[in-house]
Amino acid sequence: MFIPFGSEFQDLALPERFTFPFYYDVHPMAKYAVDLLQQRLSTEAFGHDFGLGRKERLGAIGKMFGVLVVQNSNQELGYLAAFSGKLGNSNEHIGFVPPVFDILEAQGFFRREEVEIHELTIQLEQLEGSNELDNLKAVYQELQAQWANQLEELRLQNKESKRIRDIKRSAALVHDAENIAILESQLREESMHESRRLKALKKHAQEELFARSENLRLFKEEIEQLKARRAAHSADLQQRIFERYTFLNALGDTQNVLNLFAESPPAGAGECAAPKLLQYAYLNQLRPICMAEFWWGMSPDSEVRIHGHFYPSCKSKCEPILGHMLKGMSIDPNPIAAIHPPKALDIIYEDDWIVAINKAPEYLSVPGKNPQPNSLEDLKKYFPEADGPLLVHRLDMSTSGIMLAAKTKLMHERLQRQFVLRKVQKEYLAILVGVPGQAVGEIKLPLRVDLEDRPRQLVCYEHGSYAHTKFKVLDIQNNETRIALYPQTGRTHQLRVHAAHHLGLNCPIKGDDLYGQKSNRLHLHAAKLGFYHPHSNEWMELNCPAEF
Length: 548
Prior knowledge:
The protein is α+β, with helices and mostly antiparallel strands. The protein has 10 helices and 17 strands. It starts with a strand and ends in a 5-residue tail after the last strand.
């Protein structure tokens, strides 16, 4: 699995610390290893359809790959390669490290449990697909209809009898008042008899329907019991797999996957490239130097994945595992957690009621998890007498441009109502990497958070929130597009996903470290904001030119 570098790389200075896997710049050594691996991927498919070189999808999808630059006991530099999950429906390929735990090779409990689960599944399919279940349902429904008809017919008869009794009672009051008491007694007895008859028929119907439904209930109960048995076997099997799914670290300590997650581990935990690479290195006395992960092939329909681009390790599956596996190593600091110095407020408009600022890129709008300077706290310090929440809306940390604040609670409510009712007109300027297919248009892709990799967003037609963006190309130079974006809704990362997704503009915003590639900054700027002044109710527009 260890693939040595050429002699020209053996004398290079090694990085002082190992790669922080969740936010990194690719080290030249890792880039060299990636180039070597991508040369191989360009000529070998490994039984997997990456969808390269064509537009139609037809089941094609890319795959995440990773490289780990290592040094062996002879001080030779080389690299290891891995893929996430399976490749071509196989866990192992020549030149790639094996999985941490290969359930396909488990000869004991897994095989036995798998056979039993498979047998239960066959029984379930036979029961659920049998004619007996359909026949029982059909017979019961037909009997229900028959009894419903009989009961309705008797109700109509009773109703007609009541009408006739009412006529007799009225006639007796006029022509035979002396015998009215006798007649009333007869009519009452007749009414009670009809009521008892209806009640008896209802009881008979209930008894017969219950008898027929019992067979159906027993049949369904057998299905539910089989499902419960299968679920219990599956849960037990998963638990036993997790107990044996152990990870090493640089100190030689091991932990199983159950101990590394506060709750039940997510599906696929430990099957990403990074844990595979580190596990193999530790087991074979190879010293990890640096790493990188990249996407190869066509993007999924929901996620934004661009062929050949580098990506960080996913947090939901990998953060607890890598947090353990990297213990004992010197790691690059997390740049996101680094404390940045505060910046002076750049006020572009102010009156007695509102204030607008030009937020700097890579600067928080509001306080986050880590103690960082942010625009809201800066505003509170600058306007200590302000009443209310101040900020009316916010921008992503990486986005620069106009943010609006209100100095009183009433002004804040009036402005926020305009945002809720979508009366506010917003224009963003951006630089795209690439050239969109059309110069003017709109994008409607529903968005939701990626639960397995926050804060990334997914395109999701089932659970996503409606998201709508209009756009107009302004200029194209050197395969970069200057574009105006007009968000009609305000979803998280809306402009970034609508730009990068293959069903959107298919051109990521320059410097987008989540959906594209890192640069000196995210080239996205809130340049114009139009709204009704909350005090005078006059329409006003604020403009703030972009620095790019």
